[in-house]
Design goal:
By secondary structure, this protein is an alpha/beta fold. The chain has helices at 5-14, 56-69, 105-112, 144-160, 194-205, 236-242, 258-268, 282-294, 299-302, 318-334, 350-358; strands spanning 18-27, 37-41, 46-48, 73-78, 94-101, 117-122, 129-133, 136-139, 164-168, 171-181, 186-190, 209-214, 230-233, 250-253, 275-278, 305-306. The strands form three sheets. A six-stranded parallel β-sheet has the order 13-12-11-14-15-16, with helices on both faces. A five-stranded antiparallel β-sheet has the order 3-2-1-5-4. 34% of the residues lie in helices and 25% in strands.
Length: 359
């Protein structure tokens, strides 16, 4: 829902009535993950998407019904020969959707501000909402005993960045949908070169908080990297050593200069980040590996290095190279193979299947 939160906040502030449909569970080759949302206002205006087009028409009508009745609706859409081209998912998956009236303003304000919060929505006709975040707890599920249970669950899910349906142990007949709005993942780009500018633009588009770092002040300037959230003039290894990272952080080393990238990679390859990649030719890569072994990195640590960075797209321009790099770190983070879908017969949405299997 994050991508439509600002629009919903404007609807709230203007008093515009609307209903919102949220994907609460998926199975098979579903096109959107839990948390994807589509809203319809009283004028018939639509924002967002729950299926990439497969069931939007049916969900639109459900939103209109909920607008009229004020009663929440929970339903599923899946593939069948009869409804595949009517309201079904022609890709073969199943999505479960919960449609409810307007989202509370306090929740939207927090999402728009980028605050880490978790929301808990009761999956019944009331659709009551509770929110947990830096502002404390607001709202209620309608049951005091349930509130105390789901607050702890929501805090744990926010910490792990997970979203999904949960049963309430004190009320076995009740289910809630917990949606985490964690802070954006970080893309740390080292090396203030043209490729970094293209990668910063693409990283911003993909939803990362982008930092460009270089020790050379003449190159690391805001005017050269307007799409970066932060431009830092500092020795890369010093900056990385003092910067908080997590399991979603992507580190891209574009310097291909030993005096910069060897001390930087010595730090990066020992951090719990999602991806560490380095630019350079195959000859540069072999020289880099030798230098890193000399400073004490083990074969296990070196095995984490993705170098030369990027998938083999035949890229030439900075923009094409940025696509190749981003495609690789998306594949690594999401469990993709990087191979053309045409030549594979496995699941398209790897992380969706894993989330369903662990639910």
């Amino acid at each position: 829902m994050r991508e439509i939160a600002a629009r919903l906040a404007r609807w709230n502030s203007s008093g515009t009535l609307y209903a919102i449909a949220t994907v609460v569970s998926v199975s098979g080759s579903a096109p959107r993950l839990p948390g994807a949302a589509m809203a319809v206002n009283s004028d018939g205006e639509v924002v967002g998407s729950v299926s990439g087009g497969c069931v939007e028409g049916a969900v639109y009508e459900l939103c209109r019904e909920v607008l009229a009745s004020g009663v929440c609706v929970r339903t599923s859409f899946g593939y069948s020969d009869d409804d595949a081209f009517a309201v079904g998912l022609t890709c073969g998956g199943i999505i479960e959707v919960f449609v409810s009236p307007a989202v509370p303003s306090v929740m939207l304000d927090a999402v728009v501000a980028g605050e880490p919060i978790a929301t808990v929505r009761v999956l019944d006709g009331s659709g009551k909402v509770l929110m947990v975040g830096s502002r404390g707890v607001s709202g209620t599920t309608g049951f005091s005993d349930v509130d105390s249970v789901v607050v702890d669950e929501a805090i744990a899910m926010l910490d792990s960045g997970s979203t999904g349906i949960r049963s309430v142990r004190c009320r076995p007949d009740l289910e809630v949908f917990v949606q985490s709005y964690a802070t954006r993942p970080s893309l740390l780009i080292f090396g203030a070169i043209d490729y970094a500018g293209a990668l910063a633009r693409l990283g911003k588009f993909l939803g990362y908080r982008v930092t460009v770092c270089d020790a050379r002040p003449v190159f690391a300037t805001r005017s050269r990297f307007p799409d970066a959230n932060e431009v830092v003039v500092e020795w890369p290894h010093s900056y990385l050593a003092r910067t908080p990272v997590d399991s979603r952080t992507v580190v891209c080393v574009l310097t291909h200069d030993a005096k910069f990238d060897v001390p930087l990679l010595e730090v990066a390859l020992r951090l719990p980040v999602a991806f560490v990649g380095a630019m350079g030719s195959r000859r540069t890569h072999l020289d880099r590996l030798a230098r890193l072994r000399e400073v004490g990195l083990t074969d296990v640590e070196l095995s984490r290095l993705r170098s030369p960075i990027g998938l083999d797209l035949g890229a030439r321009t900075p923009e094409e190279t940025a696509v190749a790099i981003a495609a690789e770190f998306v594949a690594v983070r999401r469990g993709g193979s990087g191979m053309p879908l045409l030549g594979s017969d496995g699941p398209i949405h790897h992380d969706a299947q894993e989330a369903h299997a662990s639910a």
